[in-house]
Amino acid sequence: MNTDINTDGDTQSPPEEPTTELDHVTVENDDAPNECAIFPREASEEALMTNWISAHEDSYVALESMR
User: Fold this and answer.
1) What share of the chain is helix, strand, coil (3-state, %, to 5)?
2) Whole-model pTM?
3) Residue 1 has pLDDT above 60, yes or no
4) Neighbours of 22 (CB within 10 A)
5) What's the burial of 31, exposed, middle or buried (CB within 10 Å: 0-12/13-18/19+)?
6) Distance between CA 37 and CA 52 in Å, rounded?
7) Cα torsion through 15, 49, 44, 21, rounded to 10
8) Is 32 helix (H, G, I), strand (E, B) or coil?
9) Residue 39 to residue 54: CA distance in whole angstroms
10) For residue 38, what are the contacts with CB-CB under 8 A and spacing of at least 6?
11) pLDDT tens-digit readout, 9-36
12) H/E element holding 22?
């Protein structure tokens, strides 16, 4: 955490953080809504066990509808 106090009135933007490219897969379920799983593209098999997000088909919307 940066504890420097800016006294000259200039606003400072936070340092740029590295970006992570994401990938996704649709999991089709016979007895439940389909799911979209989103995960880091370059993740190892071990990392994929804990680094993912999933959403049920009825819980996500088109990006354009939120803009």
Assistant:
1) 15, 25, 60
2) 0.57
3) no
4) 12
5) exposed
6) 7
7) -40
8) coil
9) 9
10) 22, 23, 24, 52, 53, 54, 55
11) 556 777 787 788 999 999 999 998 899 9
12) strand 22-27
CA nearest 32: which of 67, 2, 66, 59? Answer: 59
Q: Residue 16: what are its φ and ψ, rounded to 5°?
A: -70, 135
Question: In the sheet where 22-27 sits, what is the strand order?
Answer: 22-27, 35-40, 53-56
**Local confidence band at 66 (pLDDT 50, 70, 90 cut-offs):** confident
52 is written with which tokens?
A: 């993912």
Q: Give pLDDT, residue 25.
A: 93
What pLDDT score does 5 carry?
A: 54
What is the distance between the alpha carbons of residues 37 and 32, in angstroms, rounded to a whole number?
A: 15
Q: Examine the pLDDT at 7 and tell me if it is beyond 90.
A: no
